Amino acid sequence: MPEEVLFKFERSMERNEIADYLRSVADSIDGEGDLSLEAGGESVTMSPPARPTFEIKAERETSSSGGPAELSVEFELEWDEGSEGEDGSGGELRIE
Predict the structure, then answer these.
(1) ∠ Cα 45 47 48 (to 5°)
(2) pLDDT tens-digit series, residues 36-83
(3) Close Cβ partners of 55 (under 8 Å, ≥ 6 residues apart)
(4) Closest CA to 44 of 83, 5, 2
(5) Are 45 and 33 in contact (CB under 8 A)?
(6) What gap in Å lies between CA 53 and CA 40, rounded to an integer?
(7) pTM of the predicted model, to two decimals?
(8) Cβ-contact 66, 36 below 8 angstroms
(9) What span, in angstroms and rounded, lies between the C-alpha atoms of 32 and 70?
(10) Burial readout 51-63 (b: 16 or more C-beta within 10 A, e: otherwise)
(11) Residue 68 neighbours by CB distance under 10 Å
(12) What angle do CA 24, 39, 95 make, to 5 degrees?
C-alpha cells in the first residue's frame, strides 16, 4: 500500500524535551480528543479512535559502510480511516 506522509518532524533534542512532547501526546490520547501536530508551517490534526493499534519497535540498523549502528525506538498508533479500532493479540506490554 503506498504511503503518504502527512506530517514529519525530526530534530535532535534533550531527553526531557522529548518526554514533554510524549506527555502532550499521551494527554491528547487520554483526553479522547484530536491530536494536532504543527511545526515549520506544516500541521495535521488526527482523531484516533477509541481502540487504535499500538506498536512499539526497537531496531538496530547497521551501516553497509562499516560505520556505527544506529539504534531507534519507534512508537506508532495505527487505525483504518473511519474505523473505531479493534482488539489486537500481542499480549501484555511492560515499559520500565
Answers:
(1) 130
(2) 999 999 999 999 998 999 999 999 999 888 889 999 999 999 999 876
(3) 74, 75, 76, 77, 78
(4) 5
(5) no
(6) 28
(7) 0.76
(8) no
(9) 34
(10) ebeeeeeeeeeee
(11) 7
(12) 35
